[in-house]
Every structure is written in C-alpha cells, then in structure tokens.
Write a structure and sequence with these properties.
Length: 269
C-alpha cells in the first residue's frame, strides 16, 4: 500500500499558506506598498559556545539559508543579513527595525527565529543566514517558507521543512528527513547503519546521490512523473506505473522518496 504522504503535504501547504496570509502581511489596507525595489540592509553576527547542546532549530521565513558542519570546533557561528524592500529607501530603513533575529540558547537547544511584522503592507522582509556548527552530536532542524537552503557536511540528524525553493544537501551522513511543497531537492547522502532517509515533495524534482554500497530498503512513489535508478543494484524489485521498491545491499536502512508530480532520479556513486 502506498503511504498517504501527500495528504500531509496538502495539509502542510494550507497551513503555510495561512501563515503567509496572516503572518507575513498579505492583507488589505490603504497604504499597501506597490513595489520593493529600494532596499535597506543590516548585518548581524553572534557566536555561541558549543557545550552540551543537542539541537539547533532554525525558523526562517524568506531568504537564503546556508549551514556548514565542521569537525572539532567549539563554537557555533550565526551570521547573516536582514533586508527590507520597499518603494523608497527611507521607508525601507524605517521598517528595518521591525525585522529581527532572535537567538536563544537554553543549554540543550539553540533556537534561531526570524521575527517580522504580521502585516508587511506589501514590503519585502528577508533574512539570509550563514551558520557554521559542529558536524556531529547535534540535530539540525530547519523550517522556512521561501528561498534556497544549502546544508553541507553534517554527520548527525538533519530535518528540513520548506515550502518553495531549492534544497541542496551535500555530503550528509546522518538520518535525513525533508519535506518540500514545490521546488527541487538535490542531495548527496551516505546513509548510516540502519539509517533513515525520507524525502517528500508535492511538485518538482528529487535528485538523490547515494553510495553504491548503500544498505537499505528502497521505496519511491510518484503519481504523475518518472522514477529513475542509475548505477545501483536494486534487488527484490517490485514496480508499478507509480512506484518502485526493492532492496539495496542487505537492506538494513530505510529510503523513502515520494513526489506527487515530478521526477525522481537516484544515482549511485
């Protein structure tokens, strides 16, 4: 039986859409900004000592997100740019104070939160993040609405929930969970022993690269699209017009790929 992943995506889409309509200010009013060509920007930077924290939770809204894991580092560095677009530089500068980054560390979890007005009045609010963090012993959770996300060199669990954009995952070696409404997921992942890799999308492209030595059960589903498998020895194959499943190696881990409309390509390296 095909798992009911797509109903979850539709639910996620409408939740996010509601958030955009109410939280990002697509509301009526007399002073709606008609263009966002003029920009005001501000740089931010913070360092946090890495002690016993086990999770970093980034809640962005719009902007670019880049996260890189490094070995043997004792600090987490969070830098980036706050940016407001409006019809005049003065108006953008006046409202830059309304766009903030809230960083909290409770000793176990680090939370990074974009804070912006509930009603944007048509202005563009964006925050770009660049984060350097330890590559292991800490779980990474990323939530965003629009923009591109790049995560590289992480050896622990990575979970991404995104609505619109491109997600690039480079050289990950921990459990990986990704949900995206529309866009593309491009990844190079080495599944850990008995690890889990789940990528789900409503519309777009999943391009997954995994080692030819991967040991995992394999399931891929698409209701309107194609599934391609290259340079991998899939055994115990079961194939229909909307699914492909089987076993890679001894089948110790789990890989599930699901897309409602689009293309799934999986290549061994």
């Amino acid at each position: 039986m095909i798992p009911n992943y797509h109903s979850k995506f539709r639910f996620l889409y409408f939740v996010v859409l509601t958030f955009i309509m109410t939280g990002c200010g697509i509301l009526g009013g007399d002073d709606i900004i008609t263009n966002t060509d003029q920009k005001a920007t501000a740089i931010f930077s913070e360092e946090i000592n890495y002690t016993n924290q086990t999770r970093l939770n980034l809640n962005g809204i719009s902007g670019l997100i880049q996260i890189v894991g490094q070995k043997n580092i004792s600090r987490i560095t969070i830098t980036g740019e706050r940016r407001v677009g409006s019809e005049s530089v003065q108006d953008a500068e006046d409202h830059l104070k309304d766009l903030n980054v809230n960083i909290q560390d409770n000793g176990q979890e680090i939370t990074v939160q974009t804070e912006q007005p509930q009603d944007s009045r048509g202005r563009l609010y964006e925050v770009d993040y660049v984060i350097t963090m330890p590559d292991s012993m800490i779980t990474l959770l990323v939530n965003a609405v629009s923009g591109n996300i790049t995560i590289a060199n992480m050896a622990d669990t990575v979970a991404v929930q995104h609505t619109n954009g491109e997600i690039q995952l480079n050289d990950l070696s921990g459990n990986t969970y990704v949900s995206l409404y529309t866009g593309s997921i491009i990844s190079r992942i080495s599944l850990p022993m008995n690890g889990v890799l789940i990528q789900q999308m409503y519309n777009g492209t999943i391009d997954l690269n995994i080692p030819t030595t991967t040991s995992s059960s394999f399931e891929a589903y698409t209701y309107s699209g194609t599934i391609g498998l290259n340079n991998l020895n899939l055994q115990n194959v079961t194939q229909t017009n909307i699914s492909l499943s089987g076993t890679l190696g001894s089948g110790l881990g789990t890989i599930v790929l699901s897309i409602d409309s689009g293309i799934i390509n999986v290549t061994g390296f």
